[in-house]
Write a structure and sequence with these properties.
alpha/beta; binds guanosine-5'-monophosphate; binds adenosine-5'-diphosphate; 48% helix; 219 residues; five-stranded parallel sheet; Rossmann fold
Length: 219
């Protein structure tokens, strides 16, 4: 068969396709191994630890989640969250725009596929700060993703932090503490658990776990 100029012969085309699929597989394994899930109950200090970790490792991207909860004072759209109405959340869900999503304390939260793809394409490791139901979905969808559970030193400390943060009403704090009881029961599912008692100790442990994962060579 004579190849028309600009077209490939069958063996060339199949060689090119094999090369492409090898690159895609390598790209995927690299992208997947660089998703880092930080989970644990609300108020345990996930956001604080992530902020400090990113100060030290600025190459870590942070996925901006979507939520139907209202912005808190000082939060901005597209920076802290993509703040959506229920209808907007439903439309994105119907389009398959979420890698994972969950209802938490009466509001909906989800990780947008586009947030992960954008960073994976740039070869950037990306952190997801999500609750436990979402972490389970990521475990199914991206089994190579690193997952770290942040635990409080005690239930009393968690309550104090949630109240001390001053962002939520007493009713919301109660809802979050009820959710925390179930979430704490799930920590055995996670290979890495960091107790956030002294902040500096927890940060050091988290940094060691994350560095070991992102520096690990991928095939
Ligand atoms: P999360 O993101 O898990 O909901 P935050 O990072 O908002 O939690 O932390 C909740 C509150 O606890 C904040 O006021 C934060 O300053 C405080 N906090 C975080 N880590 C510690 C710690 N190790 N010891 C005492 N307070 C802490
Ligand atoms: P908050 O309302 O305090 O910002 O978040 C409440 C809980 O939702 C926290 O435990 C937070 O980690 C979690 N969360 C934030 N974004 C997401 C997300 O995209 N997916 C899931 N499953 N949980 C999220």
């Amino acid at each position: 068969m004579v190849a028309i100029r600009g077209e490939r012969s069958a063996p060339e085309a199949s060689r090119a396709a094999r090369g492409r699929s090898r690159r895609v597989a390598a790209y995927r394994s690299r992208a997947l191994s660089r998703v880092i899930v930080i989970t644990g109950p609300s108020g345990v200090g996930k956001g604080t630890l992530i902020r400090l970790l990113r100060d030290e490792l600025p190459e870590l991207g942070l996925s901006v989640s979507a939520t139907t909860r209202a912005p808190r004072a000082g939060e901005s759209d597209a920076v802290d969250y993509h703040f959506l109405s229920d209808d907007e959340f439903d439309s994105l869900l119907a389009e398959g725009a979420f890698v994972e999503h969950a209802e938490y304390a009466g509001r909906r939260y989800g990780t947008l596929r586009s947030e992960l793809e954008r960073r994976a394409a740039a070869g950037e490791p990306v952190l997801l700060e999500i609750e436990v139901q979402g972490a389970r979905q990521i475990r199914e969808e991206l089994p190579d993703a690193l997952q770290v559970f942040i635990a409080p030193p005690s239930h009393a400390a968690l309550r104090e932090r949630l109240i001390g943060r001053g962002t939520d009403s007493a009713e919301i704090v109660d809802r979050r503490l009820r959710a925390a009881a179930a979430e704490l029961g799930a920590q055995d599912e996670f290979a890495h658990v960091v107790v956030n008692d002294r902040l500096e100790d927890a940060l050091r442990k988290l940094r060691d776990i994350v560095l070991a994962a992102i520096e690990r060579p991928v095939d």
